[in-house]
Amino acid sequence: MPRPIDPVRRRARRLQIIDAALTAFALHGYAGATTAEICRIAGIGSGTFFHHFPTKDSLLVAILEEGTEETRRFFAAREPGTPARQVILGYVGHAVADLADPRAAGFITVVGGLTSHPDIAAALRADEDTLRAALREVVAEAQHAGEVRTDLPADRLAVWIMLLIDGFAGRTAGGGFEAAAEAPLLVEQVGLLLDGPPAD
């Protein structure tokens, strides 16, 4: 009789491999981050790797999907009564905190070079759709509460918030830009976007 699968242990192992892959991708790029190198960093055998991820592409997709789930968890964990504007700005800070990881630049560069892979492109679209929907909902709530400008549709504001975060991420990947040091200015800029032009 086969042993029952422990879902907690399985998830922990998957996260261990994902963490090792982030390091390998940052150090060696996609081509150089072989499964053998990922296994070495993770301290596992190749059998364990392929039990969880049949290909390196599937591992990269899993990393992107983990980011999408993290976005869902962020918005789902909102404390009752938290003003919607505070949630928006909190998310911006949350996203930038991830970019402060020294491996982030290398990973962004790797993903940027693989958008022609159908599974990776689909995972990126799903991530974008998830964030856009979550931001649109909370922006609409903030508009209804009078916390942010109402001269633009909620979806358009959501897209612009994403644009600012994406631009910040791209600059981080370009090098010579410290995400942690520049984060407060990004949050400030999003706040100005939410406020709209000053009244005459």
Automatic annotation (TrEMBL):
Pfam families: TetR_C_6, TetR_N
UniProt domain HTH tetR-type: residue ranges: 11-71
Domain of life: Bacteria
Gene3D superfamilies (alphabetical): Tetracycline Repressor, domain 2 (1.10.357.10)
Keyword Calcium appears in the UniProt entry: no
Keywords on record: DNA-binding, Repressor, Transcription, Transcription regulation
InterPro entries linked: BetI_C, DNA-bd_HTH_TetR-type_CS, Homeodomain-like_sf, HTH-type_TetR-like_transc_reg, HTH_TetR, Tet_transcr_reg_TetR-rel_C_sf
Record keyword Nuclease present: no
Residues annotated to bind DNA: 34-53
Protein name: TetR/AcrR family transcriptional regulator
Species whose genome carries this gene: Amycolatopsis thermalba
